[in-house]
Hints:
The chain is about 45% helix and about 15% strand. It is an alpha/beta fold. It binds phosphoenolpyruvate. Phosphoenolpyruvate binds near residues 215, 217, 236 and 237.
Amino acid sequence: MRKHIVAGNWKMNKSFEEADELIDELMSKLEEVSLPRDEQVIICPPFPFLEMASDYANDSYFMVGAQNVADHESGAYTGEVSARMLASCEIDYCIVGHSERRAYYGETDQTVAAKVDLLLANGLKPIVCVGEVLEEREAGRQFDVVKTQVEGGLFHLDAEQIKNIVIAYEPVWAIGTGKTATPEQAQEMHAHIRSLLANRWGKEVADEISILYGGSCKPSNAKELFACPDIDGGLIGGASLKADDFMGIITAF
Ligand code: PEP
């Protein structure tokens, strides 16, 4: 069966010392609980802290993900970080197509597809974000928008490749706004995504793919969201920056 995953997206927050403290605190809290074997915790700090996080992760309470990767293999792309570099630093996951990257850095479904291919080729697991903006939901277009994103970013993959993908449904109107999708709204979209996967690769494959919810998820609402049949965990922004809040979500299953 598919994994339950709670992934923390730190975005552009924390200094080296603060990052070290947070990971240290998280480690001691994780040592105190025994998580179900099918649950995976992932932290996605900024690039400069990945190596430190990955050193902690060797003790194996969590895995480490990057927040972005270049859409080219290597070469003259100043400031970019390649999938091969991430693999060589033993990074396990990478967020792709986050709405902030789509909105501020022009990331398209085509870019997402290119990054997904490079990550898979280098043995990393992409966490691919999809989700509609408020106007699209208000116009009743959310299912079509997400369908286009899933098709454009992922439909070129074969059945073996898609099994290494994690999808995060993040309604953009819920990210960092304190406004969470209701469990009904989230479940409905997750079921829609799973049916898209089933139509493309078959039900058995679709049932193996973890689909996370993201958007103002916190300890107080994680339990009812995670209780939905097609919600396999969360991609957590703000609440992953405090060990207690993140733990409250991790232990919500
Ligand atoms: C995110 O940016 O991936 C996210 C879910 O943020 P927040 O939890 O802060 O809404």
